[in-house]
Amino acid sequence: MLHLLRQPFPYSTQMSQRLRTASGFGLFVFLFLFIFRPFGLGMMETTSLALVTFLYGTVCFTILICWFLFLPRLFPNIFLESAWTVWKEILHSVACVLAVCGGNILFTHFYFHEAFSGALVLRFLWWTFSVSIIPIVLMVLLRQMRLMKTYSREAKTLDEQVSARPAESGPVVLSQPDGVEDFLYAEAADNYVKVFYLGRQALIRSSLKQLEDEFRGHERVFRCHRTYLVNLDKVVHISGNAQGYKLHLAGVEGVIPVSRSLNGEISRLVTRPKDLPIRPDSL
């Protein structure tokens, strides 16, 4: 489920993956129906059974590949990998199953000349969801494993670059106690913001957006998440899992999450030397 990367995959790569998904579902439907012969298929002769189950698998493949071809083109923002969530994956899977169910009903009507009826719709809804639950679960697990592998690998690369940065010499000079020098991160908490500095913290009645505006001009203070503002110069380690990157700060026990849509910005900013001039188009 899930769900997500620093930039959308190139469309050709997406189509290659979608073609494999549609083919896998179609093949699964054919083999499942032919081998186990549920829903009364066991009464058919082997030759007829092979043809009918093959056609049902073909219907599944055709519906899914058409779905994968046209929907991302009609609604490109919805299908961005960086904006994908668990709920989108669930709704998308349910919609795919309903589309395949509709295709099966039409095929049954025209091939077996069975009249449209509420009983036909309900029967195929049950049959289609029963057959599809196994491949959907497998697909979701494989996707989670792929995201985990991708984020872990990319986080390791970023972490190596962060570790290679020259260490700051001498003690930290707190010339501005509430300034950027000793600022670690801030976390939104209802109508307040928890602000964490080196050695202390504060709770202020403000919004994270207002605090972000106060640090305007400091490129290294970055809004990495809807509820987090972080000083990238304090990042000492980067990890990753299926949800995305996690930032580890010096002297901070917890981790700071990074919104998947901002992974590209984090990759650029967290490894960029802080003494470079700020570019007008940097954020």
* Largest sheet features: 5 strands, antiparallel
User: Hey, roughly how much beta strand do the residues contain?
Assistant: 15-25%
Mean model confidence by pLDDT: 79
Radius of gyration: 26 Å
So how many helices?
6
Residue runs with pLDDT of under 50 for 5 or more positions = 1-13, 167-177, 274-283
Distance linking N and C termini? 30 Å
Measured as a percent range, the helix fraction is 40-55%
The structural domain count equals 2
SS-based class: alpha+beta
Q: Give the tally of β-strands.
A: 8
Strand order of the largest sheet: 3-2-1-5-4
| Overall 3D shape | elongated
What is the N-to-C order of secondary-structure elements (H for helix, E for strand)? Answer: HHHHEEEHEEEEEH
